[in-house]
Amino acid sequence: MTWFEALILGLLEGVTEFLPVSSTGHLVLVSALLKLEPTSFQTSFIIAIQAGAILAVVALYGRRLLTNWNLTKRIAVAFVPTGIVGFALYKVIKTIFLTQTTLVVVALALGGVLMIVFEAWYKRRPGARRDVASLSYRDAFFLGLAQAVSVVPGVSRSGATILGGLALGLSRQAVVEFTFLLAIPTMVAATGYDLYRSAGAFTLADTQGFLIGFVFSFLSALVAIKWLMRFIANHDFTLFGAYRIAAAILMWWLLLA
Questions:
Q1: pTM for the whole structure
Q2: pLDDT for 137-183, tens place per residue?
Q3: Disulfide check for 38: which of 55, 65, 99, 151 has CB 3.0–4.6 Å away?
Q4: DSSP assignment, residue 83?
Q5: What are the helix (H) ranges across the chain?
């Protein structure tokens, strides 16, 4: 991997990590377009540069976890199912899921259709929209289960959690902020565990690639998070569903047709 390829993938990771479009899916597909072989380093790179995007969340929202113990406990409960599934399926995720472009394309398309259908239902659903303060531990665990589905690249960690939160009656702003915060333990655990298992085999050039991807992931995530919070003030997620379907069709044509 060249420094330019690491830069491109870092920017892509930061922009897509918190949008409901699947950052991992985008990284897998763009890596295929760049003709990067799905080696152990490449799959570790896709996992590890997410830490840059998570650092952006810590910079913007970390104080909320330090000052709101009730919220922190709910984040911890939500992390449990994701952590169990992630650790149990680690080998499958790294050696199979992250190398299957067809799986990513199908997940992107199906997720897009589901998002559009779900938004149509959500708009007709009566009742007030809840904030995070009303979230029970059972609800938090349910959101963790929703996030766990995103071990399949193309599903989208944020997308699955957002739809789960909307199903519980949370407001868009509340569920998006909860998704940001839930990403912190999720991505720290995923990155830390993968580096623990794989870092010993990386070269100096590999480490430089990680650093480049990390820095540009952090910078682009800062911009993407602020943009998303402004966007959801006046829009729903239907546009992202349409984008997912269009991206799936394009990638099918470019990579699989």
A1: 0.87
A2: 999 999 999 999 888 888 988 899 989 888 888 888 888 888 988 98
A3: 99
A4: H
A5: 3-16, 23-33, 40-48, 50-67, 69-88, 90-95, 101-124, 137-148, 157-167, 172-198, 204-231, 238-251
